[in-house]
Amino acid sequence: SIDAAIDVLDAAGSDTPRRRRIGAIDGTSSRIVVDANENLWAGSSDGSIWRLQPDVPDAVAQRFDAASGLPAGGAIDIDALDGAMVVVSDHGVLRFDAGSSRFVPLAGLDGPLAAAPISRIHADAQGNRYARGPSAIGMWRRTADGHHWDAQALAAVSPLHDAHAFLREGEVLWIARPH
After folding, report:
1. For residue 161, how far is the Cα from the chain centroid?
2. pTM above the 0.90 mark?
């Protein structure tokens, strides 16, 4: 877990990596996500999310909380989805809207997890999105006209709460489960 600060080891152009502090956060974080713009996002133990911009000189870590559209209560986690940081929560999947500096629902989702609690989400290289929540497990299959819920794709995974993480490599879908 991360307590208070985030550092980067930069080995570019040098035989000796250089340690550089890129920001400080309040609370403890156990997850960092890097988006397509190379922002670092850290989920904090107090339910807030921090954005750090390591390539912006003198940038200060920005804290986002309920005033920025995050759920005021309940569990949240962050993940990378299609090059963006997303929040999975008891209120579904949220994405960060840079124009308004707010978290908003991820558009284009249908099915039982469209606006329901989600604890895990993963996108594969083909653009399919795998998800699980307390009420359902399945995938949003990418099609020419968007993403559509496919509950049968993961029907063989049982019981529902057994799937903790997903990873797709080529034609293989890895599902992490407890022993």
Report:
1. 19
2. no
Three-state SS across the chain?
Answer: CEEEEEEEEECCCCCCCEEEEEEEEEEEECCEEECCCCCEEEECCCCCEEEECCCCCCCCCEEECHHHCCCCCCCEEEEEECCEEEEEECCEEEEEECCCCEEEECCCCCCCCCCCCCCEEEECCCCCEEEECCCCEEEEEEECCEEEEECHHHCCCCCHHHCCEEEEECCEEEEECCC
Mean pLDDT by 10 residues, the chain (179 residues): 60 68 68 86 85 79 91 81 87 90 90 84 85 82 89 67 62 65
